[in-house]
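User: Structure please.
Assistant: Input sequence and predicted structure:
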Amino acid sequence: MEGMEDTINEVETETETVTFKDLGVVDVLCDACEKLKWTAPSKIQREAIPVALQGKDVIGLAETGSGKTGAFALPILQALLENPQRYFALVLTPTRELAFQISEQFEALGASIGVKCAVIVGGMDMMAQSLMLAKKPHILIATPGRLVDHLENTKGFNLRALKFLVMDEADRILNMDFEVEVDKILKVIPRERRTFLFSATMTKKVQKLQRASLTDPVKVEVSSKYQTVDKLQQSYLFIPARFKDVYLVHILNEMAGNSSMIFCSTCSNTMRTALLLRSLGMMAVPLHGQMSQNKRLAALTKFKAKSRSILISTDVASRGLDIPHVDVVINFDIPMHSKDYIHRVGRTARAGRAGKAVTFVTQYDVELYQRIEHLIGKQLPLYKTEEEEVMLLQERVAEAQRVAKMEMKDQDEKKGGKRKRGDGEDDDMETSSGVRKRLMGKKGGKFGGGKGGKGARGGKGGGAKGKRH
């Protein structure tokens, strides 16, 4: 390992002098990079941009946080400058939040040349999106489900003139079973186009897709095996499942002042943990697929603006989201797929910064944890805690668990009462401590809340299961 790190560092020092101009990027875009404080191209950008500018299809494999968006955005904007047209490029992404983030980067890079982008994702108003499409933007950033809805239902909208297709986080697009939607999209866009596939991990499904949609592609691989960044301090904590909450509160107390992301496996556990931490006075905000899209964006905005220091999320936020100030990632629930571990911990230690990741391992998770160690090729150190010290928190946490349980029950009953779009007003729980008092008077119907549609799916919002809106 040591020898390998040396060679990587040597390569880096040799290529440090490379500028975007050297890669063939035109002056107006070099200036845009400078404004964004992108001083030098990252590894994936150094490899992918020259190939893309030569007119080739690209498959880019690079660990998360390595500047993949810039690697496809710059060549597309450069081609757009040479040949301006509407509906020029389509970027498909698995989650809505990632779509908004990619759009921000395109707009920032293309600000001086007047690039118009439209984000087409589920959970937002179809009519408003149709009006955006009628203005014929240059770049479309979409989740597959909602894009198919528009292709099938919006009059006058088609992508027959499309020049570029990008699939970002391609493995996740396919893992979330968007295969049917992707096939439909591939059928209605021109064969004579350029295609870029970007992913942090390569799967069999991605290889299948590559055969179907790329012509003579160049594979640009920055990390040959699954890896996490060197500046990330990873550790694990082996604890009995019933004490997970106590240990979580202990670690958050220890790391007070840091900005943390906590990953849970289900939407309800995300909500429960957020309620638990809020009742202990911590600034926590949840993000999961059953929240309405506006609430999801609001939660993310609060966390990005640092008005909340803890973001508790399902895997909806594990991909691609770039929040510069995340200091700690806690895997409260161990990920079912070991590759998701790499994406989750990649939310911290981005772009050369340092960060910490702690994974909770209970007696039920040992096998999953061993798979993660096998995948990243190293054994992680144990996170040191003093059991007696942790257990001092037990009573306070037990009380908070009771409060959280009651609030969850109240929210369920409330959702049962107005079983509209899974759109409970307290998703963000700004007023969570007062929720119960307010709700006592107006308990709803007899059933629990409707199960929200898969949140990250493009076409499905938070309604009764599977209902598109």
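The longest strand covers residues 232-238.
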